[in-house]
């Protein structure tokens, strides 16, 4: 019975000591929570991971740009055909002709932006992971080029909705 009391006292002291010491500091055999949560990927590893995805991005984006180009070509063709029909009916379509010209400029800007994006992706694909500064510069160029492509696509959509569409609706008010 006495050995049992000693064992309980020893265990209680050990637990008390561990609780006190764990409150004061972390133990060497347990990693600090900051070390576990703040995992940093080395730049060269990040470069290699990114390079593996570049070809996939190029393929995906080429498919998307084909869809955009088809949509913009259809938009221009339909607008041109409708302008011709409305002109034959006697409507004043001078504003729509100007809108058509502006649409062509915006589509050309989109294509130029896409070409710059494709070139930047090719540069990134060809850059070396050993030269991190060159790689990060190429990566920044890709990001900026992608922003430009998205902005141009958004401008075309916005231009149609906010400018062309109201001008088409204004044709209803014209008397022929």
Can you put this structure into words, describing what you see?
The protein is mostly helical. It has 2 domains: 34 residues; 134 residues. Helices cover 83% and strands 0% of the residues.
Question: What's the short version?
Answer:
This protein is 83% helix and 0% strand.
State the share of residues found in helices, binned by percent: over 70%
Largest sheet: none
Number of helical elements: 5
Question: SSE order in H/E notation?
Answer: HHHHH
Enumerate the spans where pLDDT stays under 50 for 5 or more consecutive residues.
26-34
Shape: elongated
Radius of gyration: 32 Å
Instruction: Give the integer mean of the pLDDT values.
Output: 79
Count of DSSP strands: 0
Distance between the termini: 114 Å
Strand content: under 5%
- The number of domains is 2
Q: How are the SSEs ordered, and which strands pair?
A:
Elements (H helix, E strand, L loop, with lengths): L1 H23 L8 H5 L5 H46 L5 H33 L5 H39 L6
